[in-house]
Amino acid sequence: MATKYVYLFTEGNGSMRELLGGKGANLAEMTNIGLPVPQGFTITTEACTKYYEDGRKINDEIFGQILEYVGKMEEITGKKFGDLENPLLVSVRSGARASMPGMMDTILNLGLNEEVVNVIAEKSGNPRWAWDCYRRFIQMYSDVVMEVGKKYFEELIDKMKADRGVKQDVELTADDLKELANQFKAEYKSKIGTDFPSDPKEQLMGAIKAVFRSWDNPRANVYRRDNDIPYSWVRLLTYSLWHSATWVMTAVQVLLSHVTLLQVQRASSVSSLQMLRARTLLQASVLL
């Protein structure tokens, strides 16, 4: 029987910490008790172990399951990668069976490209916000996935502000940020030799590999050594639907969940024990 490497949040539960990691298990458990968790799926610790065993490559079986679950996510949400009517944006986040806050990498707003950002600008009525999200995604992807240093992009931001006679990023206009996004892509091409990826599935696979690699980055290795966490406790990867452009995916989940806790607390049929369980899961997921 083929190994299952990918689980929807609806397929897991809180007891699956070793397979789904603390974050994946708690997201699944919160989903099970009815909290409004932005939906997604978790790629297991076994998949990450296999990635290292195969010479840091994602094999065809795991690749196929990831694409299958992308399709399931599109069905669940009614959104599609690259769609010009209802585009799907996601975050790719890491986790492990032991808490390692801030030690591994994250990619936000994955799925943005030149066409999708124009759709979001039009639908939101806020082109500045849309282009700010896009230029941040280009910088984050370049840094985390392709290891193009942040400093090159910060230099472009500083030059743009100097040229415009402003001191704060928030003073840049939508047109400024659009120009900055194009400059970021040009910088990416000058360093990597190829165009910045516009295909969301190509972006996704690059992000997954980067998050897998981050298990072995220097800060993660130092943290494990200082906290007696075995190297063999390889991490999982959580792929979550990105419902809105807030800077941290967990913050979106917690914001929605605290609203639900207030609603649940008012319901006479909910016990104090159930409320305590929901709060505990929320707190644990924030810390992972």
Describe this entry's structure for a reader.
This protein is an alpha+beta fold and 288 residues long. The chain folds into 2 domains: 1-110 and 203-288, Dna Ligase, domain 1; 112-192, Acyl-CoA Binding Protein (Up-down Bundle), CATH 1.20.80.30. It is 56% helix and 8% strand. The protein has 11 helices and 5 strands, in the order E-H-E-H-H-E-E-H-H-H-H-H-H-E-H-H. It has helices spanning 17-32, 45-53, 60-77, 114-124, 127-144, 150-164, 174-192, 200-213, 218-226, 249-265, 272-287, and strands spanning 6-8, 40-43, 90-95, 107-110, 236-241. The protein has a 5-stranded antiparallel beta sheet. Helix 1 (17-32) crosses helix 11 (272-287), helix 4 packs antiparallel against helix 5 and helix 5 (127-144) runs parallel beside helix 7. The chain is globular and about 60 Å long. The chain starts with 5 loop residues before the first strand and ends with a helix. Residues 231-236 and 241-270 have low confidence and may be disordered.
